[in-house]
Structure of Malate dehydrogenase:
Amino acid sequence: VEVRASSGGLTKVRASSEGQIGYALAPMIARGLMLGPDQVVILHMLDIPPVAEALNGVKMELVDAAFPLLKGVVATTDVVEAFTGVNIAVMVGGFPLQEGMERKEVMPKNVSIYKAQASALEKHADPNCKVLVVANPANTNALILKEFSPSIPAKNITCLTRLDHNRALSQIAERLNVHVSDVKNVIIWGNHSSTQYPDVNHVTIMTKDGEKKVRELVSDDQWLNGEFITTVQQRGAAIIKARKLSSALSAASSACDHIRDWVLGTSKGTWVSMGVYSDGSYGVPAGLIYSFPVTCEKGEWSIVQGLKIDDFSRAKMDATANELAEEKSMAHSFLE
Ligand code: LMR
């Protein structure tokens, strides 16, 4: 069934729900935070057999919450049942990172999971299914998913960097003591990892005197070019250290933001960051899933073109592209 912004059409959404992100995400979707307040949904939740009973408990809770938009819940450990007919697939399942681990350490386990899921998705999901990969290494998992589901359009397979984008907006808002909704157009370039480049060169802040560039308001270039960048790059690790668990509510919330803007469109004059299949824009090698600034309209994203890139940015954009190229060859070597 088509995803429509304001119709009674049914939308099936799949999300692994037993895990922390899934548990946070399911009620957000059911409340309309992902597809809007007029879109009814059917949730398909997939998890592994050892947690089938717990997954069923989540289904019971979703039923108990009596969400007006929730027209059905499928809780299953069978990929075919999970993927059949879905319009949107949010891939949160995977082997999780633990404190002190780098994303590439979970790669061998996760690439084989994503290869298997690619085939199931291709065979059973709606042919125009939109896919968002959240589980790490998110860009490379998405790339493997893309490579092993050749009949799904490449444009439909994306990964989450909206979490990093939102973190960057919030860091700036905190620093300037303004509301986060007054800050816009940060860019996350590259990998959802510690090499990502949060670029503030186009950020604007809405003030009572109109829109200002962030560099006019934050006089401390050292902060913008140093601590700001590392704070955003390391934020996932800082959350793991504090919670002894990966981020979950912020990941779920930004996954909703990602899909909502993709399906319903970005607001005028505003872009967001999404990990998408590179077409070579900004000199980023084609054939990587790389985070770019995008605008969305009528369910399609397009990369914002023509932004000026200085030498500082160029070096950081290349470094994160190099890491993605390394991850890609590493992933291929595990799959051989
Ligand atoms: C995050 O950015 O919070 C997560 O990607 C951390 C992780 O690797 O689980």
Summary: The chain has a mean pLDDT of 91. The CA atoms of residues 112 and 335 lie 7 Å apart. Residues 311-335 form the longest helix (25 residues).
